[in-house]
Amino acid sequence: LWDMAHKIRLPNGFIITYRCPEATPAHAILKDVVAQCDLDTNIDWQLCQAPSASASGQVLLPGQVLGVDFHPSETFMVCAQPVYVLALLVDESSSRSLPKRVLLDSKEAVGSLLPLISACFKTKIGPDFGFVLSTYNRGNSGIDDGDWLSYNDTLADYQLTSNSLLGAYPTSWWRSLPRDMVEKHCVKKGHLRVIATKEWFDTTEAEVPQKGKPIPRRFYIYAPPKLFGYRSENDETAIEVISMDSLILRLKIDHYGPRISLIRVNKIVPASEKKNKIQMVGGVLSKNLSKDLDKNTYLFFCEDELSLDESRVMISGWYKALERNASNFGFNRVFGKAISEHHSLPTFLLDLVAWLEEHALDVEGIFRLSGDQTVINIFRDRVDAGLNGEEGYIPYFNQFKDPHTVAGLLKLYLRSLPEPLLTYALYPKFVSLASTYKDQKECRVSAIIGLCNSHLPTLNLALLKVLVSFLKSVYKKSDVNKMTIANLATCFGPNLLRSLEEDQQSSQQSYGFATEQQDLFQLFANAGLINEIVTILIEYEHQLHIPTKMEAQIAASRKRGNNKHLTLKSVEHQSEDSSTTTSTTSTHSTASASASASASASASASA
After folding, report:
1. How many whole angstroms separate alpha carbon 506 and alpha carbon 490?
2. Which of 286, 274, 261 is nearest to 209 (CA)?
3. What is the rounded average pLDDT of the residues 364-378?
4. Could you give the maximum distance between any two Cα atoms of the chain, in Å?
5. Which of 176, 257, 302, 388 pairs with 35 at a CA distance of 20 to 30 A?
6. What is d(CA 204, CA 469) in angstroms, rounded to the nearest whole number?
7. Helix residue spans in 456-496 (DSSP H)
8. Mean pLDDT to the nearest integer, 525-549
9. Alpha carbon separation from 157 to 59, 154, 574 (Å, rounded)
């Protein structure tokens, strides 16, 4: 019976292979996929036929059977709000395709719809393509002056009609836009000085700056999500168009002055090619190597005549304008994404902990010794650009030869959270409890664990359980790795619990503003108590209670620590009045046995 295998696309873009009995109806498959893949149960999901070169796609009726009503080779997708739109593709040769009516999920980020649109036109759409949402006009042969979409936007944010046209346009078309149309969409403009690696200039008309020469000055207009560069303020034609959707945005302030980095993560410069890099010194270029340019980077500086404070304000303004559309602030983002934005436990963190638990417990000085920061930053940028692939993150971790580098990723992930895992709101309560019961260990433990179980958001509590359980495993091997529980608490304390005021002070310092000395004393006043709180969490992690469903997800992540592919567990559905649900790990052979036992048994799904 188990001879039907269907490809089903999830809302995050992953495609799973779903095996089921031949006569399984669509509603049963949808229910099982939503349960197994941890999709938000508050959303009315619908199973749809995915659009292709030969089909527009359609919403499946509950009673339809995938293997009977559709060809087995069809791909299906789970949608929150399916809608039909007209799609149009313009290639690099400026030839326009005929519009096709396609079914897309209007709640899904436009950037994640790229593979679907590419499949419809049998053409790969690169990350430099830009999308315009307009109204279809049969006689219009130019770029439609509609809404310019970022990869982070969703179609649900706009008024859609039967004639809504989603057009995909290459860089050459954007460069040909008249200046007045660019100005209509402008949110920020001004002069900036720019330097870049040769790899960038290969794709523009600019010239690579020479040693000792002034840094080139350009006039930029930011019309989201595109940054248009002109040789002068009066030019009508852009010499370059930078797509923020495919770039990582970073802000840096040091003795060289404030600057913005735009990084192309899909073209990493190998170490053997890191030659003739350039660096800003006093408004001209020096021969010193610049780490900022190791990753195909644009660097933007202010005008030379501005003071340091004026430069900080100006660069910070550009940074705030650009960050909404940058790749590391979008739907692909992993680092810096709030826990509340997730619907389930983040796969990145689970895979990271699973890999470290398998490979790093016996490594001396793990978490105390630093890894290769350059490699850590490159990997962070690759992850934030969505380059993890359909196999998850384990294959990438397996490429690392240094466990300290992978351990550095874990600390960086926790540091990057907009709010610490134990939350700003609970910071005063944790510190108060630790101080009040300083000499009463049992009361102290009970109060701190109780505060976590009763007041932490469910996802925060589950991630805390994952982390401290792993740290306890590290501590148990302290005779080998030399990491005592006190050492671990010192390493992770500031990443797990800190006050909002402390983060605000740190933010001011990172932007170059002075911090009062008395404020610095306040920032570190409770460091000892925080370490003691984290020590308790590690030692008594078994008293942290999380939902059974999340425990199953954590257990599954440990099993794939050495596996290349993620395998979801099969859940055997019982009657609605049954008080329990039995979960078993599914393989093809066990699935066959389940089919003979119950016609409603779910199938294995492997991503």
Report:
1. 19
2. 286
3. 86
4. 81
5. 388
6. 51
7. 458-476, 478-481, 485-496
8. 87
9. 21, 6, 40
**pLDDT tens-digit series, residues 171-180:** 888 888 999 9
Residue-wise burial string across 454-470, b where 16 or more C-beta atoms lie within 10 A, e elsewhere? eebeebbbbbbbbbbbb
Backbone angles phi, psi at 552, to 5 degrees: -65, -40
Q: Alpha-carbon distance 508 to 511, whole Å? A: 5
Q: How far apart are CA 577 and CA 231, in angstroms?
A: 71
Contacts of 594 (CB under 8 A, 6+ apart): 570, 572, 584, 586, 601
pLDDT score, position 40? 77
Q: φ, ψ for residue 595 (rounded to 5)? A: -60, -40
Taking the model in full, what pTM does it have? 0.63
Residue among 447, 456, 477 nearest 550 (CA): 456
Higher-pLDDT residue of 433, 549: 433
CB atoms within 10 A of CB 380: 21
Chain centroid to Cα 438, Å, comes to 40
Exposure b/e, 262-288, CB count within 10 A at least 16 = b = bbbbeeebeeeeeeebbbbeeeebeee
Output the six-digit token pair for 461: 């509590």
Residue 217: closest CA among 203, 229, 205: 229
| Buried-exposed string 173-211: b where 16+ CB fall within 10 A, e elsewhere | bbbebeeeebeebeeebeebbbbbbeebbeebebebbee
Block residue for tokens 């040909």: 176
Where is pLDDT greater, at 398 or 177?
177
Average pLDDT score over residue span 463-477: 94
| pLDDT of 412 higher than 60 | yes
Cβ atoms 355, 395 nearer than 8 A: no
Query: From the centroid of its chain, how far is CA 183?
Result: 31
- Residue 139, helix vs strand vs coil: coil
Residue 400 structure tokens: 């690392």
Confidence of residue 385 (pLDDT cuts 50, 70, 90): low
Cα distances (Å, whole numbers) of residue 569 to 83, 223, 427, 587: 31, 46, 37, 9
Percent of the chain with pLDDT over 90: 28
For the record, the structure tokens of 238 come out as 């852009």
Mind spelling out the 3-state secondary structure of 494-554? HHHCCCHHHHHHHHHHHCCCCCCHHHHHHHCCCHHHHHHHHHHHHHCHHHCCCCHHHHHHH
Q: Which residues 6+ apart lie within 8 Å of 1 measured at CB?
A: 21, 22, 592, 595, 596
Higher-pLDDT residue of 519, 187: 187
Residue 529 has pLDDT above 60, yes or no: yes
Q: DSSP string covering 254-280, please?
A: ETTEEEEEEE-TTSPPPGGG--S--EE
Mean pLDDT confidence for 352-376: 89
Q: Which helix (H) or strand (E) holds 433?
A: helix 427-436
Residues 6 or more apart in contact with residue 93 via CB below 8 angstroms: none
